[in-house]
Amino acid sequence: MSKQLHASVLLTLAAVAIIGCDSSTVITETESSSGSFEWDLPEGIYPPRVPADNPMSKEKVELGRYLFYDKKLSANQTQSCSSCHLQEAAFADHNMVGVGSTGVHALRNPNSLTNTGYYTSYSWANPALGTLERFIVMPITGDDPIELGVVPEVEDEVLARFDNNETYRKMFKAAFPEAENPITLEYIVKALASFNRTLNSFNSPYDQYLRGDADALDASQKRGLALFMGEKAECFHCHEGIHFSDSTANEKSFNVNQFFHNIGLYNIGGDGSYPEGNQGLYETTMLEQDKGRFKAPSLRNIELTAPYMHDGSMATLEEIIALHSNGGRVITEGPYAGDGTQNPYSSDFIVPKNFTEQEKEDLVAFLRSLTDTEFITNPKISDPFKEQ
Question: Can you list the positions of beta strands (E) in 78-190?
C-alpha cells in the first residue's frame, strides 16, 4: 500500500476509535459535489454524494470501468473487481463468502454494488469504511485476507502493467489531466470509485409502480408491499427509503448515518455470540451489546444476489422470511448451535411475527419485484473487453 493510502486508512481507524459508536454512527465528510457531470437518473432521484477531491467526470468513469474488469489489477493477474461482483448477479457473488486471487476464502459475503454510491457503510460492520474511496483501498491492497493482492512488494510491478500500455496511459491522462503522474494507486482508487457511483438501479417493477404504472406489480406483490411497509412485518424500519437500507445518503442529505443491527441469526452458547471472527460491530467497539450487529444491506435486486446474510449462510428468500417470522434463527446442532430467537442483543424489531403462508409468499413476491433486469444487462456498465 502506498504511504499516502496507508496513512489515510490509519487516520480513519483512529477517528472511529476516538468517536466510538453504538448501533448508530454519524460520519462527517468533505463537501459533496457532482460538478457538471450528467447523471443517468430518473426524475426525483438525487445523485449520490461525491467527495470534493474526486469530482465526477466521464473520463474517470470510463477509466474506472476498464479497471473494474481488468485482471491486470490483481497481483497474479487472475482476478478483477468483477470476479466477485458479477453484473448478472447485480454486482454481487454467488459464493457464500469472497474468494481472493490466491484462493483464500474471506469470512464475509461480498456485498452487491447496486446503488453503491449511496451507501454510508462499505463493509458489513466496520464503520471506518464510510466512503467508496476508503473502501476500495482494502480489496486492492489488503492482506488479511488477500483479494487482489497488490501488497507493497508488487505495487510497482502492477502499476507498470498500466504504464506500459499506451491506451491506459491516454485514459489516465484524460481522467486526471492535472496529475503529473496519474498512474498510481491513489488515482486508480478514484477512477474505480467514480465508476462505482454510476452503478445505479431504478427501473424495477416496483419503481415503475411508483412512477404510476398500476399494473407493474401483481396482486401478491402489492400485498407484500403493504405488509413490508406495515407494522406487522416492520421491514421498513431497517430497509427504508428508495434504497431499502437505513445506511444510505445522497448529495442533499443533511445527516449521514450508519446503522448496525442484530437479527438473531446466531446465539452460540446462549450469550449472544456469533461465530469467531464474524461478530459484527463488536469487533470494532468491543461492547457486548454490539455482538452480531451488521448493516442492513439494500434489498434492491435481492432475488439475484443469493446466498444471503453477512456470511452467506442463508440460501433463499424464503429462509430470510422464515427468520423474521420466527424472530430469529434456531440452529439445533453443530458448533454454531443456539436459539437466535433468544439472542439478548437482537433488535427490538426482531420478534415473532407469525406470518401466514400467504403472507410469506407475498413478501417474497414483493422482494422479487425489486429486480431490475435493465441494470444487469446495461452495456454502459458492462465488461468493455467483451466489446473488443
Answer: none
